[in-house]
Amino acid sequence: MNADNHTDGWVERLVRADVRATAAYHVADAAGLVKLDAMENPYPLPRAARDELVRRLGAVELNRYPDPQARALTARLRQTFGIDPRWQILLGNGSDEIIQILIAALATPGHGVLAPAPSFVMFRLIAQWLRVPFHEVALTPDFALDVPAMLEALRTHRPRVVFLACPNNPTGNIFAPEALCALIEAAEALVVIDEAYLPFASRDQADLLAHYPNVLVMRTLSKLGLAGLRLGMLFGDPRWIAELDKLRLPYNIGTLNQLAAEAVLEQYPALHEQTTTLIAERGRLFAALGADPRLVVWPSEANFLLVRLCAADARATHERMREHGVLVKCLDGSHPLLAGCLRLTVGTPAENTRMLQALDAALEG
Ligand SMILES: *Cc1c(COP(=O)(O)O)cnc(C)c1O
What we know:
Layout: H1 10-14, H2 17-21, E1 34-35, H3 47-57, H4 71-80, E2 88-92, H5 95-106, E3 113-117, H6 121-129, E4 134-138, H7 147-157, E5 161-165, H8 177-186, E6 190-194, H9 208-211, E7 215-220, H10 222-226, E8 232-236, H11 238-245, H12 255-265, H13 268-290, E9 295-297, E10 304-309, H14 314-323, E11 326-327, E12 329-330, E13 341-345, H15 349-364
Parallel strand pairs: 1-11, 3-4, 3-5, 5-6, 6-7
Antiparallel strand pairs: 2-8, 7-8, 9-10, 10-13, 12-13
Helix pairs in contact: 3-12, 4-12, 5-6, 7-8, 14-15
The structure holds pyridoxal-5'-phosphate (PLP).
Pyridoxal-5'-phosphate binds near residues 95, 165, 223 and 232.
């Protein structure tokens, strides 16, 4: 059989046109490069965590379904992150799955999703996949929430879910508390505060839960050093979580993931030490980049820095950095506010030094 005509138009006839028109989520090939494009923690698992993980793997009962409620892991997360006993926790296969659950449970064809822009692309992509409207409101030029424009969008579009990443990706800033409160108070919507970068931030927003009935907080272990694990969490009032939990696929967190996350979180201080190093390195990079007249760098509460090249072409610079062995993220073209911008993930001290050299060499042309 000829592979070329094997499906004979079946795929074209049956797969939704909007799906066929969608580009697959692109992950750049980083083979052989210093990988500073995806906000990964550059350090391997701390030794004690690795040993504990290996020790427990031998006893895993893979013939059994996982604990559907992941009770031991949930208790461990509650303890590690000091989550108030009033709040219930829902776990997802990364925050991405939680975003999908939230949108599936709340949004309708008439009442979709609202987020500022630029922000995390998955908010928009998942709304599109679930065929609900997605509305975005540009941040101000200094990346603050444009509160009047957001309030107007709330009135006009009446979304059911609002996503606010705090710190925001890719801008790295935490939105002002007054702006958050103004939006939460005006929204006839669930406001989800996405704290993916909390390990690198000066403060969290969990206090909002006690003040507002329409807020939930989402976190992830990805940026903490466990991106490969895929574990996200959402917490807040048990009545919200009980409804959302109905749409969670049973056993979405496999036995290996539950066990690995538990073992690693028992060694949380070692992970925390890694984030402390990364925060110090972020400071070093910020100072070095800030002293370079060829670019603008913004302060960041995350494990990346956003820079704008004053004169150089960002795409060409990105490509030349890759030729010098360093992969970063080019954001030029993804949003008007990001014209000429690159996003640089903070790596190990040696990686950061190489990144600065590659950027310098690329800007020299
Ligand atoms: C990286 C990131 C996440 C993490 O998603 P996971 O699916 O948990 O890996 C969530 N939100 C934002 C804003 C991010 O940048």
